[in-house]
Design a protein that fits this description.
459 residues, alpha+beta, 7-stranded mixed beta sheet
């Protein structure tokens, strides 16, 4: 009896252990080197969390504006990082106002990212590592500054990074990184060159042409072409440099400057379209400019010739209200967009000041001969008439001195051309039947004897 129970118990335990081993082997095993999720998990003790909660408020605010959190999370998941954080006064008061405005413009997001990543090194550097007086060069996280390395050295007992002095070494220490406080901002050469190029572009764009050119009306060209100085505005109107309609020629016509382009219009148009995509809410407009039409290419050629443009950009909600009939006709998207392109450089401030001073202002558009009217309404600028009007919704989305993009909340259409007054319907006049000569003579004879009253035809 005991042996039977003992044998059954052994068989039961053997079966149970076999089932348990099979179940454990079927479970997924995560290797310690490979996390189960592709997105790196950042704990509360990370150096990034410490930076966002630290007293370096100006730097943490710029990191959030530059959309760098995901990039830094991936960097921290791979290796330790060292962050050289400028003090708040260096970013708030000591920084040049024009340079700060340049960094915060939506079109210069890449420059802001490169500037911030230039302050971060993908390795752990503590205060004890500053032992050599000779500079030790380190590569930063900035992708455009691979050839420009940060030198770390000591001078007169002070720790120096690049051109900035370390004022608080080992200020914040975490397992995955360390933060040092420095006295001023470190600017890579790529960002400085981009800022200088934009600043010189604004300076040259203000040059006015000298003299009045003489245009041959037959050929629409200058009779005595003269070289256009660098930065000068084109001598011919923008309408003369525009491409003909799709029915005449598909390619844009060359502008007055020929192959000598003083501006890189294609890069600027690409830059403002990327800004629209990053800004959000203007994907439909970008799709029309790039995919449905060749307007992006034509705008790039115009800007390369020295012309300036202001784009009244309808947002996605406004574009969604367009019907199929409005877009199905040949050339309809181009005509709609031409009415939203103003051949002037206008900002939100300049347009608002104009409507405040003059009441109603009419701006030329690339859709000749129609003009778009602007007026002040509810503390903003309103374009168009009546139900087809649109308000300035997102001001100064992109401004670089050549192209200005102003977001509006509606699609504008030119007012219908005044038709000739309709002629009044012709009144049908029923004329009395004319009596013949013989009947008139008979009625005269009967009237002489007083018998015409008996005949109705004589009345």
């Amino acid at each position: 009896m005991d042996s039977q129970i003992y044998g059954v118990s052994n068989l039961f335990y053997f079966t149970f252990l076999t089932f348990l081993a099979f179940t454990v082997s079927a479970l997924p095993v995560n290797s310690p080197g490979k996390p189960s999720n592709s997105v790196a998990q950042i704990n509360s003790n990370s150096v990034l969390v410490a930076l966002l909660d630290s007293h370096y408020t100006e730097l943490s605010e710029l990191v959030e504006k530059a959309l760098l959190l995901q990039t830094l999370e991936e960097a921290v998941s791979k290796h330790n990082i060292s962050i050289f954080a400028p003090r708040n006064e260096a970013l708030e008061r000591d920084l040049d106002s024009e340079f700060k405005r340049f960094l915060l413009e939506p079109g210069n997001l890449k420059s802001l990212q490169n500037l911030l990543l230039f302050h971060m090194i993908p390795r752990r550097i503590e205060s004890k590592h500053w032992v050599n007086k000779k500079p030790v060069f380190h590569t930063s996280l900035c992708p455009d500054a691979i050839d420009e390395k940060l030198p770390l050295h000591q001078k007169n007992g002070q720790k120096i990074v690049g051109t900035a002095r370390v004022i608080k070494s080992d200020d914040i220490i975490r397992p995955d990184g360390i933060i040092h406080g420095i006295e001023k901002l470190l600017i890579p050469k790529s960002v400085q060159q981009e800022f200088n190029a934009r600043r010189s572009l604004r300076t040259t764009s203000a040059v006015l042409p000298e003299g009045a050119p003489e245009v041959d009306p037959r050929t629409n060209r200058l009779k005595k072409p003269a070289p256009v100085p660098v930065g000068a505005a084109p001598v011919l109107p923008i309408f003369d440099a525009m491409a003909p309609g799709p029915s005449l020629a598909p390619a844009p016509a060359p502008g007055p400057g020929g192959p000598h382009h003083h501006f890189d219009g294609e890069s600027q148009v690409k830059d403002f379209i990327q800004t629209l995509l990053h800004y959000g809410g203007y994907n439909e407009l970008a799709d029309i400019l790039v995919n449905l039409t060749s307007l992006a290419t034509e705008m790039g050629k115009l800007v390369s010739e020295g012309y300036v443009l202001t784009v009244l950009a309808p947002n996605d909600e406004a574009m969604a209200k367009l019907t199929t009939d409005q877009l199905s006709e040949p050339g309809a998207p181009e005509q709609i967009m031409y009415y939203h392109l103003v051949p002037e450089y206008q900002t939100e401030e300049s347009m608002y000041n104009s409507v405040r001073r003059f009441g109603k202002v009419k701006y030329d558009t690339l859709r000749l001969p129609h003009k778009v009217m602007a007026e002040e309404a509810d503390g903003s600028v309103k374009f168009g008439h009546g139900e087809g009007s649109a308000y300035l919704f997102d001001p100064d989305i992109y401004t670089d001195g050549r192209i200005s993009v102003q977001g509006i909340d509606g699609v504008l259409f030119p007012p219908e051309e005044s038709n000739a007054p309709k002629a009044a319907p012709a009144t049908k006049i029923v004329s009395k039947p004319r009596r013949g000569k013989l009947l008139e003579y008979a009625c005269t004879m009967l009237g002489a004897v007083g018998q015409d009253s008996h005949f109705s035809t004589c009345h």
